[in-house]
Write the structure tokens for this entry.
Amino acid sequence: MHLHIYKDEEELAIALANWIEVLIRKTLEVKDQFSIALSGGESPKKLYQKLASNPYREKVNWGRLHVFWGDERVVPFNDERSNAKMAYDNLLSQVNIPTQQVHSIWTDIPPEQSAKQYEKILHQYFDDKQTTFDLVLLGLGEDGHTLSLFPGSAAINDEQSWVKADNAEQKGMKRITLMPTVINRSAAIVFLVTGENKATVLAEIISNPTHEKYPAQLIQPANGELYWFLDEAAAKNL
Ligand code: 6PG
């Protein structure tokens, strides 16, 4: 586990954008494509805006990226709460990634069907590969949830599925989420966590990494690396 703590969200976003640019460049020296799973919520917005601006917009070889999502809220794409819309507005609409390499989670079909469809896409993309994603970006909720894996949600105990639909409304929305099974086979997993409201649960999770009290503790890379990129407010209890 690697811990990176920065003064504030701005410094964190710049440092993580640099770190990601280097990871992509180094990976593409040995691989044809780079696969990334984006997170939703508020925390990654500033990072996406940095990656969409120079020098990163010019430095990153966007044409060789495949973009996926870690989870989605079951709302239409043009809904402000859509994780896909947030990523498009803050990053994807400003960089040149071929449309067929942007794999959004469909929310205009029944969630179970969409989960099955996305699982099929992931198997098609990863089955012949040692690791799954080259990079996964994750957030953390005050309740210890990550992706759309919430404490007490039935989906959590499924160790077979790569993608699940959770019909229990979380924050007023049904969800489709990737599961630890596919996330934990990734090469690099980054938790991006900001704000004092996350400090208590974060300290508990980081000091008890193998406990399984919180969904975020199910994220334990099999062969890859786990990184925590934090601002000082979130890290205040560490
Ligand atoms: C989602 C996210 C979720 C998010 C956390 C933190 O769809 O809501 O994927 O897991 O990362 O809820 O959200 P904030 O960054 O908004 O605090």
About this structure: Helices lie at 9-28, 45-51, 56-59, 83-90, 111-126, 180-183, 199-207.
